[in-house]
């Protein structure tokens, strides 16, 4: 089968297409999935650059990729809840019990998979596992965001931000977001109430007494966000733990989000999609043969939403 693999760790993200990869063999507690589409996440680059190499025991070359949508081909003997030909979406990430999603077939853990939303095609569904799970986990589980509250979402045009804006509006919150000038109309159409150009404006000078900040950017943006919050507010970051001293100073809760792409979160995403609460945001679609170009585009263009790798039509 075809699969996108790496044969060494490199800062240059040296991914290549291997046309002669063995089919994954599943265990009795796994599913074999025919992959139709996959999507690129920042964590794919983290793996390629070797930042988590101590957690990876698989020898080179190995297949990368997490998010996918596809169809079940084979069901392990101990797996319940899935059957052959089920249309599913989830993660095939190696560190989550899978064999990598940038491939024609993948072994996956049933605990990281759910039935695909009925109203989405495979490309759309593949855009959602990580970003949808991140939004649900952060806004509903961690923040418990409620009607009438105010939230600032950094990076509102990105994969996580674009879904989080939609979910926050559904929950009844007032939503401010930071984006580049070219993305202002895009996030307004998603429902953002207040949009701040992060290059020209200082968001901390415009926003005060917010209940929550969801930071997908990191760095100084995280530290500058503390002053936006009211006492007792929450700052959730996708970029590691917020500064503990600043959390104490401003009397807020700082939380590092480690996204759990699991069946529970995926079923919630499916529900929200089928109720037309949130919609996938697909920026561009590449074929598996164009995997290198897809990564170059992802790293250099600041996509609106997700970049998709179509495995089969």
Describe the structure.
With 313 residues, this protein is an alpha/beta fold. It folds into 2 domains: 3-128 and 280-310, Medium-chain alcohol dehydrogenases, catalytic domain (Quinone Oxidoreductase, Chain A, domain 1, Alpha-Beta Complex); 131-256, NAD(P)-binding Rossmann-like Domain (Rossmann fold, 3-Layer(aba) Sandwich). It is 27% helix and 27% strand. It has helices at 42-48, 122-126, 129-142, 159-170, 184-190, 203-206, 220-225, 244-250, 263-274, 291-301, and strands spanning 3-6, 15-18, 31-39, 62-63, 67-75, 87-91, 105-108, 113-115, 150-154, 174-179, 194-197, 210-215, 229-237, 253-256, 282-287, 306-310. The strands form 3 sheets. Strands 3, 5, 6, 7, 8, 15 and 16 form a 7-stranded mixed β-sheet that branches. The chain has a 6-stranded parallel β-sheet with strand order 11-10-9-12-13-14, sandwiched between helices. Strand 13 (229-237), helix 8 (244-250) and strand 14 (253-256) form a beta-alpha-beta unit. The chain is globular, with a radius of gyration of 19 Å. The model has no long low-confidence stretch (mean pLDDT 97).
Write out key terms for the chains shown.
single chain; 313 residues; Quinone Oxidoreductase, Chain A, domain 1; 7-stranded mixed sheet; alpha/beta; 10 helices
